[in-house]
Structure formats: C-alpha cells, structure tokens
Specification:
The chain is an alpha/beta fold. Helix content is 28%, strand content 22%. The model has no long low-confidence stretch (mean pLDDT 94). It has six helices and nine strands. Strands 4-5-7-6 form a four-stranded mixed beta sheet. A three-stranded antiparallel beta sheet has the order 1-3-2. Strands 8-9 form a two-stranded parallel sheet. It has a domain of 120 residues: Alpha-beta prism (UDP-n-acetylglucosamine1-carboxyvinyl-transferase, Chain), CATH 3.65.10.10.
C-alpha cells in the first residue's frame, strides 16, 4: 500500500479490507493518499504531487500499527512539511532512521518520538537493514530515491515478505536481489 504512496501510481491489494486498517488508512488519507474499498480489495493511489506531513502515534489494534511505523517514516521523509511519529509500543524502534538519513532524509529522534522534515527527494545510497520493518522501509525509500540504493542484510526481509522483488517488480519497480557479494 505504501509503494504507490511513495512512488506514485495505483495498486489494488486483492482481498484488502479497510476495517482491518482503519487507523493506517486514515493517516494515508490525511497525507493525500486515497484508499478505496472495491469488490476486489483496496485500491491505493497518491492524489496529487507530494504527500503532506501527518503526525502518527502507534497504538494497539485498532490504532496505528507499530509494524507500519518504519514504512510510514519512509513515506513522510518525502512529505511536504514536518511530521512527528510517536512510538508507544516498543522502545528503540527507530533504528531505521539513521539509514534513511544516509539517503538524505531529515529526521531527529528523541526517545520515543521522531520528527521528520520532508525533503524534495531522497538520494540512492548503500544502507543496512536492522530488522524486518527497516528492510522494507529502506526498499520503499530506495524506490522513491534518485539513483541506486543497495540494501544489505535483507535476510531480515525474508522473515515477513515473500517474493518482494517479484511483487514490486510486477507493478513497475526496478528491483533485484544481488547474491554472492
């Protein structure tokens, strides 16, 4: 759902249901990303131009999922304005922030809060995944970045995202897994 939000375009997530993602979809809507329930699932598209800054506070279901916080930070790194992400579920859940900063993101982490000042564009860079959520957030940021991004330690990714290269490639992403380096 965040790939078309950060890169543009439109994707339908087959079988998706808004009622299971209400808090997440509300934050996407506030940022300028439409999420529409259809008979097939959820259709997601960025409305016009850059996304807008929004504040996010993680909470247990039905609140904003902590498991989407890192990916949302990648999106908000390119938003127009200043966003604040407050992590209330897990400590030390912003380990992806320094890696996003290597790509040009402006992020200030203070305890359980991160202030993200959106930039016009991210730049490709070599980055390192620290966990499952970080790995996919760095891939999303890399898709939106100018130039090439190499994400190392993607073994984290494989614990939660099956065939991500094929799935993102099928909707137009230029992504490949490099082995043996």
């Amino acid at each position: 759902m965040l790939a078309p939000a950060i890169c543009g375009g439109e994707v339908t997530c087959l079988g998706g249901r808004i009622d299971l993602l209400e808090a997440f979809c509300e934050r996407l809507d506030a940022a300028g990303v439409s999420v529409t329930q259809t008979g097939a699932g959820l259709t997601v598209a960025r409305r016009n131009g850059r996304v807008r800054a929004v504040d996010v506070v993680t909470a247990p279901f039905p609140g904003f999922p902590t498991d989407l916080q890192a990916q949302m930070m990648a999106l908000l790194a390119t938003a127009e304005g200043v966003s604040v992400l407050e992590e209330r579920i897990f400590e030390n859940r912003f380990m992806h922030a320094p890696e996003l900063m290597r790509m040009g993101a402006k992020i200030d982490v203070q305890g359980g809060s991160a202030t993200v000042t959106g930039v016009d564009h991210l730049k490709g860079a070599p980055v390192m995944a620290t966990d499952l959520r970080a790995s996919v957030s760095l891939i999303l940021a890399g898709l939106a970045a100018e130039g090439e991004t190499t994400v190392s330690r993607v073994y984290h990714l494989d614990r939660g995202y099956e065939s991500v290269e094929q799935k993102l490639g099928a909707v137009g992403a230029k992504i490949e897994r490099i082995t043996g380096q």
